[in-house]
Amino acid sequence: MSVYLHGLSTALPPHCLTQSEVRERASIIFGQKYPQFDRLSKTFDTAGIDKRYSVVPIDWFTQNHGWSDRNAAFMTGAKALFIEAAQRALDYAGWTGADVDCVVTVTSTGIATPSLEAQVFSEMSFREDVMRVPVFGLGCAGGVSGLSTAQAIAAGRPGLKVLLVVVEACSLSFRADRLQKADIIATVLFGDGAAASCISSAAPASGKIITLSQGHQKMWPGTLDIMGWDVDETGFGVVFDRSIPTFVTEEFAAATDGALKAANLDHGQIDRYVCHPGGAKVVDAIEGALRLEQGSLNAERDTLRAAGNMSAPTVMFVMKSVLEAGNTGQMMACALGPGFTASFMPFHVTAEAA
Fold first, then answer.
1. Domain covering 3-200, topology
2. What global pTM score does this model have?
3. Is there a catalytic annotation at residue 140?
4. N or C: which end of the chain has fewer CB within 10 A?
5. Fold of 209-350
6. Of these residues, 16, 102, 140, 198, which one is catalytic?
């Protein structure tokens, strides 16, 4: 059964943090305590990021925070982002909250029980019988995996209307107490954001036809230490224990070949790869691994420059940019995340009829 994308939206929180501002504040916090900070701080200049956005103002990061106030900030910020992104997607699709049969909610940066779609139930006017599918722990792969999950659900029941909402507040995991290299790199890269999409097996009445195909995942055994969270009394602590760009160079091409084979496609049939920009070096490594022209992943670099790595929703920001630029043809969304996992989803874009 064919499945179609009816609406795609993005949302950013209110506090804009320039890279120079973050670097200056990080220098104050880390400079006297962490001897390697001066050397690592050079990555602020090479990360390809001009600014990102946060659910809390920059002064929040100069104070000590534990689980309670970190998660309280997540609840406030994530709910606001959920409502904004979801409502924009619904408006674009011409749906209302009451039209939605299933909500898939993806996040990895805070804990909400009841989950976020229940927290915003009244504001979104969801029906009492709406199906809820909260997904936690996919990290940077969550956008593509979320699209794949929503596609699979929509394919299982004709006409089912699925709302996917992907929300991350990465900034709230800032840690100045552990003094680890991973915490410096996280400070360089991560921001907050959300994206949403409306998905159904019913074809859109007008506009571009965006057809979503079955997703594919690849997990590598023995790689749990590449990316994830350490969890302690203070909160989440980021894990980057291996070189992700090197891993991409060595492993990503074969994983992509597996995804293409599963979709009955080959590399030559892909008009555009739509990739999660984990960082400037990761984007370079993807271009090399997939034998793409250097600089061809321009939307990925532009997204990274304008909003940083927002984890799961970032690839959907790229997807929106690619669609708005008028790209058509066969595409493949891809992202890497904790597990260690590569997530893929083929989709095809047909130009709007004249």
1. Peroxisomal Thiolase; Chain A, domain 1 (3.40.47)
2. 0.95
3. yes
4. C
5. Peroxisomal Thiolase; Chain A, domain 1 (3.40.47)
6. 140
